[in-house]
Amino acid sequence: MNIAILSVSLSVYSTRRIAEEAEKRGHFVEQIDYSRCTVSLGEGRPRIFYQEEDISREFQVIIPRIGAKLTRHGAAIVKQFELSGCFSTARSMGITRARNKARTLQIMARKGVPVPKTLFSIDPESIPFQLQQLGGPPVVIKLQQGTQGLGVILAESEQSARSVIDTFYKMDQPILVQEYIREAEGEDLRIIVVGNDIVAAMKRTGTFGEFRANVHRGGSAETVLLTPKEERMALEAVRYLGLGVAGVDIIRSNAGPRLLEVNASPGLQGIESATGINVAAAIVKYAEYNGSRKK
Predict the structure, then answer these.
(1) Which UniProt keywords are present, listed alphabetically (predicted)?
(2) What percent of the chain has pLDDT over 90?
(3) 248 and which of 27, 81, 107, 234 could share a cystine (Cβ 3.0–4.6 Å)?
(4) Tens-place pLDDT, residues 196-241
């Protein structure tokens, strides 16, 4: 089977691991930099060019690894592959939904998946009301499209919260303001879902004095046993967004687990190291099974 990994570089750990596992299973695999892809419409059949080569019919399966900076373009390329008959491990609509934290939480709330108390607004005059609705500081302020813990700020006083929120509004940056779940103590869960299965889960812990638990921010990780409710939340979240492969982030609170966000291109290095599970192989097996069914 011919498999394309849509990623900007083969040097990225997750991309390299997926390519290695695909080759081990006898597939032809190629890393395609989606930022260098062009879609041609309006004259004959639609075509996808990689630089100057027509790759519209070269692959049966694509595995998108779309970065935050090029989400819209990457999702458009994924969509064109879908329209050409390729199986994608992450649907284009799911990628764009998951990239926007507000949209993800809206969908989860509508479906009854528990999420932290969250507000999003662009009205600087309502900042006092926003803080009041969340029970006052501390509050967590997040960019709606931030990744790896970037653009996530803990405001511990009303003055700092107002200052940060007002600054983001003036910069025309869409944000979320969320309740601070103190009892989590800088810990959260990262759960990898592939198809209808949870293949790996880890607990991430932030460094001392750091409320963000991202491994990219210097935190640590270890394997974790999920509760049935946490497993169900992760599987439902991925299904509601229309993704085949995703990383789901959950935080444990006194009121029960709360879904934080869903990542359509989850990193594999931290979770493979923490759990010893070959997540890349699970992704390839899922891709090959579904790719063969589309023939």
Answers:
(1) ATP-binding, Ligase, Magnesium, Manganese, Metal-binding, Nucleotide-binding, Protein biosynthesis
(2) 68
(3) 234
(4) 999 999 999 876 555 555 555 557 889 999 999 999 999 999 999 9
pLDDT digits (tens, 9 = 90+) for 256-292: 999 999 999 999 999 999 999 999 999 999 999 998 8
Among residues 163, 180, 197, which one ends one of the domains? 180
Question: Do 101 and 125 lie in a common domain?
Answer: no
The verdict on residue 174 lying in a domain is yes
The domain of 31 spans: 2-90
Residues 6+ apart with CB under 8 A from 129: none
CATH of the domain at 21: 3.40.50.20
